[in-house]
Structures are given as C-alpha cells and as structure tokens.
Amino acid sequence: MRRIVAIICAALVAASAFADEIVLESSTARLVFDGGNAFGIKSFVMEGVDIAAPVTTAPWEVELLGPRGENPHLKPVWATYKGGEVSGKEAVFTWSLLLEGTEDYTITMRVSLEGELPSFRLEADLPSGWIVTMAEFPRIAVRRPEGAKAILPVGYGTEYVLSGGGWLGSDYPSCTGSMQMTLMYSPEGTVFFSTRDYDASGKKLMIGGEGPASIFLQKTVTSYGWTAPDGHFSLPWEAVIGFTKDSWENTAIKWYRPFALSTEWGRRSIGERPVAEWIKQSDMWLRPIFVKDETMEAVRKGLAYYGPGTGLHWYQWHNHPFDTNYPEYFPPKDGFREMVAEAERLGGHVTPYINGRLWDPANHTYKDLGGEDASCRKPDGSLYTEVYGSRAVNTVTCPASPLWQDVLRDLNRRILEELGTDGVYMDQIGAAKGEACYSYQHGHEPGGGDWWHKAYRELLTDMRENLYPADKAMTTEENAECYIDLFDMMLVVNTPHNSYTKMVPLFPLIYSDRCIYSGFSYEPWKLNDGSLMYITGRSLVWGVQLGWVDPGKLMKEENAREAAYLKTLSSFRKSNHDIFLGGQFLGEFTPGGDNPTVDIPGYQLSPYVMAALWKNTEGKEVFVLTNMDSKKHKVTLPDGRTTTVKPFSAKRIWK
Predict the structure, then answer these.
(1) In this predicted structure, what is the pLDDT of residue 14?
(2) To 10 degrees, what angle do helices 560-574 and 293-306 make?
(3) pLDDT-derived band of residue 210, with 50, 70 and 90 as boundaries?
(4) What are the start-end ranges of the E strands in 30-178?
C-alpha cells in the first residue's frame, strides 16, 4: 500500500513540475516556456546550446483601428494572459483583450516544430468593424555572446558589432533589406531569423540590444484586407528562428537559400528565364554622364580599350537637372540620339537612366494628367514626399495606379523606339522601400501588404512580354530579391562601408546563380588611391559584372593602372562564364601564406590576394583568386596547397 501511495505521490509531483512548464520538442529543437501567469521562454536549445536570454521581452505588439476611430497600440501588458497548451508539435498561447466592454477578444500566438526551425504565427479575433493596422511579431529575445556581430541584408550584406543598446533595421524589400533575414554570429555559432513571406509584403526586420539580450523582431504595416469582416486577423506568413554552431555563411545557405529557391522570384536560374544575351556577355560597365563632346570622346576611348560588349549606363541625358521634373525626360539633349547610335556601332550597349518611382509635382504632367491621383496617400490623405540633392520635392507614386503604369510603360517605349537604346535603367524599383498607401482609387486594399511588389511585377511582366524584344534589357538599382526574375541586371552600389561597417557577400551566397548584378559601391572620389583596385578585385570574387566607372575619369593617364586591372579582370571574367554566369558562390576566404594587408581608404583592411570558392555550372568546385598588388604572392589555399598569383592578375584552381 505504501508503495502505491509513493508512486501516486511521485506522479503528482511530476505532474505538478510539468504543469509549471510548457515544453515543445522535436529532433532539432527544444523550447521550454513558462507555465505560470506570464509568458516567457525559459530555454531554447538547438545543437546542445541554450540561446534563451536571461531576460524576456513582449512577444507581440499590435495597433488596432476601431469603427469610431479608436487607435490603441497594445502590448501584452494591456491584455490578460490566458496561458498556453501543447497539441502535438504546436504550442498555442492566448491573450484576451478588453474591447467593446468584454474580454471575449483574443491575440493568439502559435509556435510550431513541424519543420527544422521553430516557427511563429500570429492571429487575432476582434469585434466586427475593428482591424489590425500594425503587427510587431514575433519579438524574440536570445542571449548575446561576447563579441557577437550582426549580419543584415543591406545591399550585398553588412556586418555590424552588436551592443547592449540601439537597434539595427532593414526595410524589406529595398536596398536596406534585400532579403527576409537577419543573423547574429559569434565564436559560439549563428542565430538565424527569417520571415517566410512568398508574397514579399513590406516589413521591417530588426535586431536590438536590451542588456544581455538581442531582440529579433519583424514589424509590418498591415493591409486592411488581412482582417476579415468578422474581425478575424491572421498574419499571412510565419517567422522562423534557429541556432547552429556553423558559420553565418553556411547558415544562410542552409536555412535561407532553400526558401529563396522555392519562391516565384528565385525558382528559375539565370539560364531558365529570359535575359538579354548582351547582358549576359557584359563583363564590364562604363558610366557616362552628360551629353557633351568630352563625354562622347571618353566613351570612344573606353569602348576602344575594353572592346565590344561593354555596357553603358548613361546619366543626365535629358534636359532637366537630375532628380527634377520626373517623369519628363523628352526631348533628350541635342546630340544624344547620335551618341547612342555611335556608341552602339562601336559595340557598346546603352541603358539610359530614368526614375521608376517618383513624380515631381512641379512638372506640368503632374497637373495635366492628374498625377495626384497616382500618388501614394498616408492615412490622413497627405502625400509621401522625398527630397534629394536636387532639393526638388518629389512625390512617391503608387505602382498599382493605372495612371502611373501607363506613364512608365509609355516612357520605356519612347526610349527604346525613339532613342534606339539596348535597354532602360529604372531607378528605385529595386532600391526604395514601398509605402503603405491608403488611397481607395488604386485597386488595392488600404495599408501595406503584398500589393506594392505585385503591382510592379504585373507592370514589368507586361512590359517584358509586350514591349521589350528579347535583345532589350530592363535594369534597376539595387537588389530587392522579389524583383530579381523581372530584371536582366541589378546595379548594387548602396551597401554601407567604412572602418567599422563591413561589406559581406550575403546576397551572392543566396542568389549568385539567379541574378546578374553589377557594381560594388559608388565610384570613389579618387581612383588611384587603391580603392578602385580593391573594388575591382572584390567584385570579381563575388561574381559582380565589373566597372561602373565614369570613362572620363577612368581613361585619364593617372588612372592607367586601375584601367588595366579592370581590363585584365573583365577579360578573365568573360573567359570563365561557367563560374560567373550561372555558377554558385559558396563564400570568400583569405588565402594564407605571403598575403600582406593594405588599408583601403573608405573601406577596410584587406589582403592583397582576395579569393572565393565557387561551384561552376557543371557542379564542380573551383577557387577564384585575384592579386591587386604590383608584386606576386605565393599563397596557401584552404586545402593546404600553395599557388603563386602574379601582379594585377586573376586565376582559377580546381578544388
């Protein structure tokens, strides 16, 4: 009898201990949540490492809009926690809200271990007539190891030192948020956070410091359409987070690339989608500015030096100052048509600059066509306006507006037909973030959501099929992932860089075989101080189409060394398209041995010999090396072999 009582007592103790915790476990992860009257993550273990923070954070924040204009910003502290329960591989946590005089309304968080990574979903049940207008979810606190650094998808990718205060953020999709992920790495391993949004809705991904913790979160301005008439709201995607002892590079490839390749924009390789053949062959780009005799003379010299196939990204060919009077580009400056024709006879390919997002309200077309009807509207009905170096006040147009679509379509047609160019460069589409639009005239639900990306996708697809011949190219600035299959090439030049902000090749790790990209950063003020040599060498190993330099500066005698290095590397690139045109970038490395470093003005300390590991189009791994020094260097590869790299040269070595 005593034995039976002892067994019953032990079972009751075990049940009581289990009741104090909510455990979600799979073969890859184990999460332990507080089972008491407040939500908290007590333990988060993957690969034997507990990344749970010693402090907690609110897992969600929402803003609501009621039928009478009520606009509360709610956090868990303003709700009643109802606890959580586990059903199979999912844990469900609920908070009740006091709305319309009752607590019958709820916020629900679902945490699942159905996949390799824990995933998080948010739902709400509100009174009829109420909607969710903003969701900050999930907010997850993890332990921040000593010396931890953050990797954000800003341009090519940017590395930052993490501290106990301040926030780092990426606006997706844009040049500051080219992909839906953030990472934190240290000698301990890598924490990976990502949203799995196949419709590329606008959102902000952030990492912030709170004492000993790093907070990973996403924040999105919601679409009014995401809340049903009966008051049910569901965030249309899940977020995932995980830890591995692996490097951040391998983590990105392992946990983000499979998602990227399953999306509409990433499922087709460069060889499987329409790309103008001349873009594939353009291993070198020049950037002419203005329409002057000296401009054309520099173009002639550049094309004679770099040869046929060179791309020409031409600025300020129109009669108005830069960043003013958009979208009025015609008539072009006198002589531009003739310059385009001559450049193309010499083997160049011209893509003139236009802006694909802004409309200057001072332009007569804004008044004549009713441009205000195409402008994005804030909730109060005012316009989003942006000011750049020109000081002109430009309005942000809504890509879903039929009026703006007609304007952009007609502008592209005129450039191709009247100027005879080989393509058009549409700035800001792949660079500038979308804005939530509250106009009821544009055919989309008010607020944020996926309509911005889908509106551009509809327009660009239509132009590709009905306006652009196969040999004409559409290009844009920056590399927002959701547009990579719509453009022949993306110019990437806005990645931050200085002595404490490091550029890293996050984007090539994911999309090197899906996207053709050119540029590295804006042209340095001085070309012969080592910075252009560095840009050229690193561009090669990252798979970038080279150059994007003003030929008027590049072809000066004082820059002969830089021009020659560009020529050597562009020729090398052209003869190795099995690597750089459809191959997969696997990561850069610093060769050992005789490989001194040099401080690059405006960038960072760099080895003279830069290198990367690639997989070519046949699936064979190959090392790519380049030496930007005037001396040869005998260096060591990761597998222990040694090789000598000649001055100002590049080479490939099979792994």
Answers:
(1) 35
(2) 50
(3) confident
(4) 30-34, 41-46, 49-50, 61-65, 73-74, 80-87, 90-99, 102-112, 119-125, 131-143, 149-152, 158-161, 167-172
Distance CA 320, CA 318 (A): 6
Contact 624, 540 (CB under 8 A): yes
Cβ neighbors of 645 (< 8 A, separation 6 or more) are 609, 625, 626, 627, 632, 633, 635, 651
CA atoms within 13 A on the CB side of 522: 6
Alpha helices in 174-239 (DSSP H): none
Contact 285, 312 (CB under 8 A): yes
**DSSP letters for 523-591:** PPS-TTTTHHHHHHHHHHHHTPBEEEE-HHHHTSGGGHHHHHHHHHHHHHHHTTHHHHTT-EEEEEE--
Contacts 24+ apart (CB under 8 A), 86-89: 86/22, 86/23, 86/24, 89/24, 89/26, 89/113, 89/114
For residues 419 and 318, is the Cβ–Cβ distance under 8 A?
Answer: no
Let me know if 75 is exposed, middle or buried by CB neighbors in 10 A (0-12, 13-18, 19+). middle
pLDDT tens for each residue of 224-250: 999 999 999 999 999 999 999 999 999
Cα distance between residue 39 and residue 56, in whole Å:
9
Q: Is the dihedral of CA 397, 399, 400, 402 positive or negative?
A: positive
- Over residues 182-202, the mean pLDDT reads 98
- 13, pLDDT greater than 80: no
Token pair 């034997």 is found at 48
**Which helix or strand (DSSP H or E) is residue 211 part of?**
none
Number of H helices, E strands in the chain: 14, 41
Beta-strand (E) ranges in 222-314? 232-234, 239-244, 284-286, 311-314
Residues 478-502: tens digit of each pLDDT: 999 999 999 999 999 999 998 778 9
Nearest to 637 by CA among 646, 625, 629, 627: 625
Q: What is the rounded CA–CA span in Å between residue 177 and residue 179?
A: 5
Given its phi and psi angles, is residue 110 left (phi above 0), alpha (psi -120 to 50 degrees) or beta?
beta
Query: Residue 103, CB half-sphere, CA atoms under 13 Å: how many?
Result: 8
Given a contact cutoff of 8 angstroms between Cβ atoms, the answer to whether 361 and 382 are in contact is: no
Question: Residue 305, class by beta-carbon neighbours within 10 Å (0-12 exposed, 13-18 middle, 19+ buried)?
Answer: middle
Estimate the crossing angle of helix 560-574 against helix 531-542, to 10 degrees: 10
- pTM score: 0.94
Q: What is the 3-state secondary structure (H, E, C) of 426-447?
A: EECCCCCCCCCECCCCCCCCCE
Residue 121: pLDDT above 90? yes
Per-residue pLDDT tens digits for 347-386: 999 999 999 999 999 999 999 999 999 999 999 999 999 9
Q: In what order do the strands lie in the sheet with 385-387?
A: 358-359, 393-396, 385-387
Write down how long the chain is: 655
Q: Which residues contact 392 (CB under 8 A, 6 or more apart)?
A: 323, 324, 325, 360, 362
End-to-end CA distance of the chain: 72
Phi, psi of 259 (to 5 degrees): -65, -50
Residues 6 or more apart from 225 whose CB is under 8 A from it? 445, 447, 449
Residue 464's H or E segment, with its range, is helix 451-466
- Residues 6 or more apart whose CB falls under 8 angstroms from that of 48 comprise none
- Reduced DSSP (H G I as helix, E B as strand, rest coil) percent helix, strand, coil of the chain, to 5: 25, 35, 40
Give the angle 270-276-278 at the CA atoms, nearest 5°: 105
The torsion angle over the Cα atoms of residues 271, 274, 275 and 276, rounded to 10 degrees, is 130
